[in-house]
Amino acid sequence: MGRLGRCAAAVGLAGTMAFVALTAATPAVAVTGGPGYRLLGGDGGIFAFGSSRFFGSAAASPTDCPADPPARSMPDGSCWSMAATPDDRGYWIVGAYSGRVFPFGDAVSYGQPADGVAYAGGADTWPDAIGIAPTPDGRGYWVLLVGLSGLGSVQPFGDATSYGDETTVSHGTGHAGLPVALVATPDGTGYWIVDSDGGVFAFGSAAFRGSTGGTRLNAPVVAAAATSDGKGYWLVAADGGVFAFGDAVFGGSMGGVRLAAPVVGIAPDHAGPGYWLAASDGGVFALGGAPFLGSMGGSPLHRPVFAVAAAAPTT
C-alpha cells in the first residue's frame, strides 16, 4: 500500500483496519441483526456477508479505482481501504491513488485528501491514501496517507480531531517499516498507526500495548484491529500470523499453514473475542469463535481483495 504498495504489493501489504473508533459524541445506534463483514476488492468492488448489506461499490466506475494509474504501479487496482458507518447502513471507500473518498448508503463525505495541498502537484508526488477510520457518531473520519518520506500522516475530516502522526514524532535511529494500518480508540480520542515491521505508534489517548517492532518476522505485518474496550489490539502478517497485545485474546492464526493467497486484513467479531482474517483471493478465516459467514475464496475476482471491515456492534 502506498509506497509500500509499489514495492511490496505481491505480499498483499494493503492493510485493513477493523475500525472500531468511537468519539465523545453520542454514538449512532447499530442496526445489525448479528455479525457480518465486507470485503473490498482493488477495483472498489464490495462483497457483503452475514448481517452486512451491499449499498453499492466504486467498481461501477472505471475511473474511481483504476489499475496502474499514471505515475503508479498498482496492477491490482487502487482502492485499498474501507470503513463501515457506526450503524452499518453505509461505508466509505478510499482511493489510494486519487485520495478521493467514496460514500455509500448512509455514509456522508466530510472531505477528502484529494482536495488538499498534498495532491496539488504532479501525480508522482502525491501520497497514497491507505486507511480510513470513522468517528463513533459517523460525522467524521481520519485518513492515513503515506508520502515520499515513507512516514504515515493522518488527515482528520468532519468532527475527527488530529492527535499527531509519524511525521510529528522522533524516530531515533531510523524508521524500519512502512505504514499499513490506522486503528482508532473506542472513545475516538486517539489512534494507532501500525507499520509493516510490526512497529506500533500511539497517539492521543491510545496506549502502547506492545509490538513486533525489532522482532524477526516470517512475513510483514499488513493490518491491525483493536479490541472493543481499546485496551488491546491484534496485528496480522501476510502469512496469517496473528500477534495479540493488551487484552486482545489470541484465537489462532494461519501462520504455518500453506495459503493460496496472502492475508491482507483482520476484523474483530464484536460479539466475542474472535476475529476474521481475509486473504487477497477472497478467502476468509474465522478464528477465536468468530462465525464463518462466507467468502469469495474459489470464486473468480476482477481484482484481488485488499480489505475486510466488520459490521458495527449491535446495541
Question: How would you describe this structure to a colleague?
Answer:
The protein is 2% helix and 34% strand. The chain is mainly β. The protein has a single domain (3-310), classed as Neuraminidase (6 Propeller). The strands form six sheets. The protein has a four-stranded mixed β-sheet, with no helix packed on it. Strands 3-2-19 form a three-stranded antiparallel β-sheet, with no helix packed on it. Strand 11 and strand 12 form a beta hairpin.
Describe the SSE topology:
Elements: H1 3-8, E1 17-18, E2 36-41, E3 46-50, E4 79-84, E5 90-95, E6 101-105, E7 128-134, E8 140-146, E9 152-158, E10 179-184, E11 190-195, E12 200-204, E13 221-226, E14 232-237, E15 242-246, E16 263-268, E17 275-279, E18 284-287, E19 305-310
**H and E string:** HEEEEEEEEEEEEEEEEEEE
What is the overall pLDDT average?
89
Query: Nearest-angstrom radius of gyration?
Result: 17 Å
Q: What is the total domain count?
A: 1
Going by CATH, the homologous superfamily would be TolB, C-terminal domain
The name of the CATH topology is Neuraminidase
Tell me the name of the CATH class.
Mainly Beta
Tell me roughly what share of residues is in helical segments: under 10%
Distance between the termini: 34 Å
Major sheet summary line: 4 strands, mixed
